[in-house]
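Structure tokens please, single chain.
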Amino acid sequence: MAFRLAPTAASEGFRLEAHDSVGSTNTVALEHARAGDPGRLWVVTKKQESGRGRRGRAWLMPEGNLAATLLILPGGELKLAATLGFVAGLALADALDAVVPKGRIAVAIDGASQGRNRFELKWPNDVLASGAKLAGILLESAMLEGGRFAVAVGIGVNVAAYPQDLPYPATSLQALGADCDAETLFLALSDAWSENARLWDDGRGLNAIRQRWLARAAGLGGEVAVRIDGNVVRGVFETIDEDCRFVIRDDEGSVLTIAAGDVHFGAVASARA
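Here you go.
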């Protein structure tokens, strides 16, 4: 089966560029933007050679997984465009719900799960299944002529395999017993993106996106530890605020609002080393 767009996405002017192999779908998308591409372009592959995660970390992607980047040239402020990562998380979770038969993915019983969803969203950019990382999202931007900017919304999903020897639990759809390939998942993703992007509405619908995201949030109401530039703060995950920043309440009752950091749940969060 070849990669293809959902009819809803095609009717809204989205386009598709599929590769057998590519270094980074984000890099390709931003190169297109600098060359004058108008956006609404999906760049997809099942084999990515040099993918990236947050803060320059390598994102290893065995063949058969899904790497998909959507190139967007949004209006407004770059700060608002950064919330497209929450749109991407919701779109991917909706797509996974659509293509993975119910009963194939268990709801994890651990510090990250509230027992509500098969696929949960971990702030700021991960999708979990059975409490383990299934997918990651990376937004990158580039300034263009005329003061405009482009955003590459990169989505990497462990479909056929997942990286080993990681410092956190990871999994793949295949390891979880789901019979779904990258092409089928992308078809559903391109459809789910359109629906969630309409809800986001160039940022005007951010509060609706925020509420949907919280309904799928991993660890909400539980203990968390957040590593920020080498320091660790601990508390209870209360919400995300109107700008989608992470909000916790520490042991002394103070409310902390966090714009960037690595979040840990369960036993790691409870450790007091």
